[in-house]
Design goal:
This protein is about 30% helix and about 35% strand. It is of the alpha+beta class and about 400 residues long. The strands form six sheets. The chain has a six-stranded antiparallel beta sheet, with no helix packed on it. Strands 4-13-16-15-14-17 form a six-stranded antiparallel beta barrel. The longest helix is centred in the middle third of the chain and has 44 residues, at about 115-160.
């Protein structure tokens, strides 16, 4: 039996070293290939190129009126018909029927003053009128009797059947009866005048609305003394302040140098600071024929074309004076970009949009044109930035940056 050759189990260290050196050499050869591939990738994608400086503007949501505005002015909403309602008489307030925000009709009773003394005066005047009427009736009855006696004695005296003295007495009685009737009728008229005066004084105790309006402020409360002049301590001159909401207008100051751009009847758009998303159509109602020398301006009153319960007196407002009246379709806001940002290719409208640090070409659908702006119906959204000319060096996917101002 042959013995096994143990020498075959020995590891050939020369072969192992050769294999390792070959792997290392192959790995070192792959590194430059990888680096070249990465460099080519960054070269073709433009990552190694410096970013191209471009001008960009955001997609905005604007109103058509902004493109038709000739002039802007600021002012306040003012009620052209406003009143501090008080009484012509002085008295203590015993009843108040309204509060802030209530609507009142013309001649509606707003408040009542203490009127017990005036009521008593009116009752006395009414009684005097009834008494005077009774006295007039009695005087007239006396006149009828005196007239009959006078006529009878006159006829008898002409025939000599009665003495002259009897006729004279009947005549005197007749004349006195006539005078008494006249006196009692005068007294009746005087008592009626006194009654009318008492009713007027009683009416003064009822504070009524002078016109249809809304209560703005309540200046007095039950128990307060109300006097027209408010001369007494703690006395109130007015019970409530009211305003006719249908008379609301915006009063703005227009510089004298810009007055030529304003004319009566000119269409306007009103924007209230309290309602920034709502635009109210209006027209120039009046250019007040006087100037404010301290501000070198002229007041212009702008009327609301449409009434709204949201509009309140003393709200701050801004008025845009327009070159023409807006149509119903031009009341709503729209997305807009500069017309110069549009690129026409093969009948399609395209724009470059900045996404990240790249210029991306997007197709858009446009609508109306307003001067240098174009309406965008589809393709971009408000807030996105579109690139404006020049476009010579801009390509799809190129790195871009907007220089800081």
């Amino acid at each position: 039996m042959t013995e096994p050759d143990i020498s075959r189990l020995r590891i050939d260290r020369n072969k192992t070293a050769t294999r390792k050196s070959r792997k290392k050499r192959n790995f070192l050869l792959l590194i430059p290939v990888f680096l070249i591939a990465v460099g080519l990738y960054f070269y073709w994608t433009g990552a190694l190129k410096p970013a191209l400086e471009v001008r960009a503007v955001p997609v905005q949501t604007i109103f058509p009126s902004q493109t038709l505005t000739l002039l802007n002015a600021s002012g306040y909403v003012v009620a052209q018909r406003k009143a501090a309602v008080s009484s012509k008489a002085t008295g203590r307030l015993v009843s108040l029927h309204v509060e802030e925000g209530d609507r009142v009709k013309k001649d509606q009773v707003i408040a009542v003053l203490d009127n017990e003394d005036v009521r008593a005066s009116r009752a006395r005047a009414e009684a005097n009128v009834h008494l005077s009427r009774s006295l007039v009736e009695r005087a007239k009855a006396e006149l009828v009797d005196a007239t009959l006696a006078y006529n009878r004695n006159k006829e008898l005296a002409s025939k000599g059947f009665v003495a002259k003295s009897v006729f004279d007495s009947s005549e005197a009685r007749y004349k006195m009866a006539r005078a008494e009737v006249a006196a009692q009728e005068a007294a009746l008229r005087a008592s009626q005048a006194t009654l009318a005066e008492a009713e007027v004084l009683l009416e003064y105790s009822y504070i009524r609305a002078p016109f249809d309006a809304v209560v703005l402020t309540k200046n007095a409360d039950i128990g307060d003394m109300v006097t027209p002049l408010a001369a007494a301590a703690n006395a109130k001159a007015a019970v409530v302040t009211i305003a006719d909401m249908d008379s609301l207008m915006v009063e703005v100051d227009v510089a004298e140098s810009n007055l030529a751009q304003v004319r009566p009847g000119q269409p306007c758009e009103i924007r209230l600071d309290a309602l920034p998303q709502t635009r109210f159509p209006g027209t120039v109602h009046m250019i007040v024929p006087t100037a404010d020398r301290t501000k070198a301006s002229v007041m212009v009153k702008v009327a609301f074309s449409e009434k709204s319960p949201q509009v309140l007196p003393e709200m701050s407002a801004k008025v845009a004076f327009l070159s023409r009246e807006l149509s119903s379709e031009e009341r709503a806001p729209f997305k807009a970009i500069p017309s110069s940002a549009l690129i026409e290719r093969n009948g399609r409208a395209l724009v470059f949009v900045i996404q990240g640090e790249r210029a991306v070409l997007k197709q858009v659908r446009t609508g109306r044109r307003y001067n240098e702006l174009a309406e965008v119906l589809e393709g971009v959204e408000p807030g996105e930035r579109v690139i404006v000319p020049p476009f010579e060096k801009i390509k799809e996917g190129v790195r871009v940056k907007v220089p800081e101002k």
